[in-house]
Design brief:
The complex is a heterodimer. Chain A is of the alpha+beta class. Chain A has helices spanning about 75-95, 105-120, 160-170, 180-195, 230, and strands at about 25, 30-35, 40-45, 45-50, 50-55, 60-65, 70-75, 125-135, 140-145, 150, 155, 205-210, 215. In chain A, strands 1, 4, 5, 6, 7, 8, 9 and 10 form an eight-stranded antiparallel beta sheet that branches. In chain A, strands 11-2-3-12-13 form a five-stranded antiparallel beta sheet, with helices on one face. The termini of chain A are far apart. The chains are: A alpha+beta, B alpha+beta.
Chain lengths: ~240, ~270
């Protein structure tokens, strides 16, 4: 009798594995922050198939129930699967018809459990999720990774956003940003991501959630600047480089 | 006639002799010793009158900080400085070597060194070692053709840019540059922006830390601001001095001077020079 510890190939050999091994259609970073009246979240609308920009109108942020907004990066099909689970969760919650509704903290906890349990079965949902919401005046912003790591913070970002947007947010985020200031800060982060993340597209949506509800903006593009004089003739002094 | 193996001296370039031995060792589970990497944030930008280079001062060996205040901005020529990221030994050696080559070249030509000369020496050397010399450099200087800023990658490719960042903290620093850089910065604005970018690397990247070094190069003048900013001071110093309790009691103190063993007597002629 062969021990599975000595030979882990017996447990999950690639040939008969039905588990998620790699992501196929992926979305890039999501950036979110808390502002005076609630949460602001931004994500672009690109779905990349490896290195091809395959889908350019993917909505990666969706409202959940009355009080929450979910943004996801990573495998798009797994995000759609999660939306189905959450649909069912909200449906059952509504069926109780008891005047209570699931708030962002509860949804965040549910998502953490789902992600962690899938990871334990070696069949992860290949996503990094951002969950934001307002319930009874309390603002909540949290993140869950594909292995079930979850935490709550004043500003979060997934993927490349962690390296490019988080430093900016750490410097410039303040407790009561107005809506305009929050949007400007988010656009600053999304612009840097557009310049420096190869899978970013210049078509983004900004979503806002407050006590009143969720609004997801129409897709729009950011203005970029390429007019540096050094870009006009880069090899002026150094032939052969670029 | 037997098989005569002629010993030919190596022609230069990387010697792959130990490659097989290393591969065999790593297969048996022996890990390579972690070399001192500078896990770094280095930046450069071009402003109105010249170039400003910046760097953090942390050197890491694996997950240990081995030098809290090292110097990553290396001298190449009176008008050219180079920041180095990657393996510390590689950046030191390569910048030292090219600095000497530049000096010889200056003697040969009788002119001030040009930044493209340093660039070419560096990229030719790095390319010939096919990326094994792990040095990622930000080279900046002002020569008679104007201010120049280049990045050089370990495999030997180069970029000419108005602002550049390298090292593990490069993304954090680049986020600052991309959101705040504009053309025609004054000296103070430039130094402020470089400091902000390095601080972003120091506080958001684990491989970078400690202090900010700055070097401002303009036509005919350079300012090396070592530890321009020290945002990580040692705030708590214990008021009690270190005191070690005497463990063994002293019973007796006796001093015995060593006797001279050899008596030297001058006999005969003094030794001739």
């Amino acid at each position: 009798m062969e021990s599975t510890q000595a030979n882990p190939g017996l447990l999950c050999s690639p040939e008969d594995s039905q588990r998620t091994l790699y992501p196929y259609v992926t979305g890039t970073s999501v950036v979110a922050l808390k502002y005076k009246d609630g949460i602001l979240m931004a994500a672009d609308m690109g779905g990349s198939y490896g290195s091809t920009l395959r889908y350019k109108s993917v909505e990666r942020m969706k409202p959940i129930g009355k009080h929450s907004l979910l943004g996801a990066s990573g495998e798009i099909s797994d995000f759609q699967e999660l939306l189905k689970y959450l649909d069912e969760l909200i449906l059952y919650d509504n069926m109780w018809d008891d005047g209570n509704s699931l708030g962002p903290k509860e949804i965040h906890n549910y998502l953490t459990r789902v992600m962690y349990n899938r990871r334990n079965k070696f069949d992860p949902l290949w996503n990094s999720l951002v969950l934001g919401g307002v319930k009874k005046g309390q603002k909540y912003l949290g993140m869950v990774s594909m292995i079930g790591v979850n935490f709550e913070d004043n500003h979060v970002a997934t993927g490349f956003g962690n390296h490019l947007a988080r430093p900016i947010l750490r410097d410039e985020w303040r407790e009561d940003l107005s809506f305009e200031e929050g949007v400007k800060l988010l656009e600053k982060c999304m612009r840097v991501l557009l310049y420096r993340d190869r899978s970013a597209v210049n078509k983004l949506q900004i979503a806002k959630i407050t006590e009143e509800g969720v609004t997801i903006s129409q897709p729009y593009a950011l203005r970029t600047f390429w007019g540096f004089s050094a870009f006009q003739n880069p090899t002026a002094g150094a032939e052969g480089s670029w | 006639m037997g098989k005569a193996v002629i010993d030919v001296p190596p022609k230069g370039g990387f010697s792959f002799d130990l490659y097989k031995r290393n591969a065999m060792l790593s297969k048996d589970g022996v890990q390579l010793p972690p070399f001192t990497k500078t896990g770094t944030t280095i930046v450069g930008l071009i402003f109105q009158d010249g170039v400003i280079l910046g760097a953090d001062t942390r050197a890491t060996s694996g997950s240990i900080v081995c030098d809290k205040n090292c110097e990553k901005i290396h001298y190449m020529a009176p008008n050219i400085y180079c920041c180095g990221a990657g393996t510390a030994a590689d950046t030191e050696a390569v910048t030292d070597m090219v600095s000497s080559q530049l000096q010889l070249h200056r003697y040969h030509t009788g002119r001030e060194s040009r930044v493209v000369t340093a660039l070419t020496y560096l990229k030719r050397h790095l390319f010939s070692y096919q990326g094994h010399v792990s040095a990622a450099l930000v080279l900046g200087g002002v020569d008679f053709t104007g201010p120049h800023l280049h990045t050089i990658y370990p495999h030997g490719s180069t970029d000419t840019l108005p602002y550049a960042t390298m090292g593990s903290g490069s993304l954090a620093a680049m986020a600052i540059f991309e959101s705040k850089y504009k053309e025609g910065l004054t000296r103070d604005e430039g130094v402020q922006l470089v400091t902000e970018a390095i601080c972003s690397g120091i506080f958001n990247d684990l491989g970078s830390g400690s202090n900010v070094d700055i070097c401002v190069i303009t036509k005919g003048n350079k300012e090396f601001l070592r530890n321009h900013l020290q945002p990580n001071p040692r705030t708590y110093v214990s008021p009690k001095e270190y005191s070690f309790t005497k463990k063994t009691e002293v019973l007796l103190t006796k001093i015995t001077p060593l006797k001279e063993k050899v008596k030297v007597t001058e006999v005969g002629d003094a030794m001739e020079e």
